[in-house]
């Protein structure tokens, strides 16, 4: 019999599925309406459940009591209690005995963040927590969370992978503070980033255990140097991806503090070297930034994000980057802000072939404007694909 249950209709279908929950280890629910405390139904009826995926679900109505039996009901289902024990105590015992390891909530409505965390923080084996908060975390929810400490909660002792979307900064900070043991993956989307959040991310055990960090469309509120501090603090980091954000390249900061992530193999971000009104020059900024990147000798993928169009959006001379990076023994894929380049030469091609021996793809190169460079690369490095666009075959 299958070990998973998929529900994609209204809540009336859940009653027919309830008996099957007892033997299921994976539940996928989407596009329906559930009562506010449906998670408690799972605790009472799905002892073998290991993974929950809920998408496009609207939650409504609080937990209620069936007047005929004086028992708690959720979406028409009874929440059983042991003799002499209140239903709430039985639910807590079920949660403590739960083997749920993965919890993914996407595009949900009607639940507050504090309610979600109150549930998740009591799951002792939870290792993956992915939650799209969206517009549904109200000020009331934030206030509730302020009075709760997640540090030491059983559900955050095993957590390894956290991904949040639309989460208030102070709540993200509390979640990070609660997951102090073995966090290896962290992702944040459409959320503010503050100095306190960065300190929680790079502090404690996270500095040693974090391997992969991703930001997408985040707002750096009071910490424009956040990405630099991450690279300076997370010694075990293997991947850093920043989409829709800018790393301001300050020469003095880059020269004073060394990036410690010597095992980094994937770096994708957008450096900014030409911010106006600064005391340093574009050249100084580019030199300091590229020297730091060039020190990461295990890099396999290096991507400088650019805006749409063919303009030079990085603020520095892209051809010079090839010299500044130096020898990159593991580099396989690169996109270095070359899309505005008109001066790539055969000497640049020779440098790449000599110092980047494992390169297999060079993206963002204006092919028709640099024919001598491209022809040399294709003749002497036939295994290397030189492309204008990132996703070009």
TrEMBL record:
InterPro entries, per the entry: LRR_dom_sf
SUPFAM superfamilies cross-referenced by the UniProt entry: RNI-like
Gene3D superfamilies (alphabetical): Ribonuclease Inhibitor
Entry superkingdom: Eukaryota
Entry protein name: Uncharacterized protein
């Amino acid at each position: 019999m299958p070990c998973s249950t998929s529900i994609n209709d209204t809540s009336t279908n859940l009653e027919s599925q309830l008996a099957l929950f007892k033997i299921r280890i994976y539940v996928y629910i989407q596009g329906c309406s559930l009562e506010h405390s449906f998670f408690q139904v799972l605790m009472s009826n799905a002892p073998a459940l290991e993974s929950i995926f809920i998408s496009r679900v609207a939650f409504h109505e609080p937990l209620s009591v069936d007047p005929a039996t004086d028992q708690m009901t959720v979406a028409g289902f009874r929440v059983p209690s042991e003799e002499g024990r209140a239903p709430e105590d039985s639910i807590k015992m079920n949660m403590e005995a739960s083997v749920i390891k993965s919890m993914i909530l996407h595009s949900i409505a009607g639940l507050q963040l504090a309610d979600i965390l109150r549930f998740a923080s009591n799951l002792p084996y939870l290792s993956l927590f992915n939650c799209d908060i969206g517009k549904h975390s109200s000020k009331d929810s934030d206030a509730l969370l302020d009075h709760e400490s997640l540090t030491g909660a059983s559900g955050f002792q095993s957590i390894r992978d956290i991904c949040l979307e639309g989460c208030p900064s102070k709540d993200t900070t509390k979640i990070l503070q609660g997951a102090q043991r073995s966090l290896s993956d962290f992702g944040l989307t459409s959320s503010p980033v503050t100095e306190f959040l960065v300190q929680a991310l790079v502090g404690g055990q996270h500095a040693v255990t974090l391997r992969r960090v991703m930001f997408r469309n985040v707002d750096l509120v009071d910490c424009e140097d956040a990405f630099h501090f991450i690279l300076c603090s997370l010694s075990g980091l293997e991947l850093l991806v920043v989409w829709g954000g800018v790393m301001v390249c300050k020469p003095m900061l880059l020269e004073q503090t060394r990036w410690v992530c010597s095992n980094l193999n994937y770096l994708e971000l957008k450096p900014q070297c030409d911010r106006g009104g600064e005391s340093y020059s574009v050249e100084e900024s580019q030199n300091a930034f590229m020297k730091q990147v060039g020190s990461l000798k295990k890099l396999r993928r290096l991507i400088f994000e650019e805006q749409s169009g063919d303009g030079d959006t990085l603020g520095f001379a892209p051809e010079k980057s090839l010299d500044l990076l130096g020898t990159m023994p593991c580099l396989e894929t690169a996109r270095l802000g070359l899309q505005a380049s008109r001066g790539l030469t055969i000497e640049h091609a020779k440098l790449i072939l000599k110092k980047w021996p494992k390169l297999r793809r060079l993206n963002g190169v204006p092919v028709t404007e640099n024919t001598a460079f491209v022809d040399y690369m294709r003749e002497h490095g036939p295994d290397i694909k030189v492309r204008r666009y990132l996703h070009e075959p």
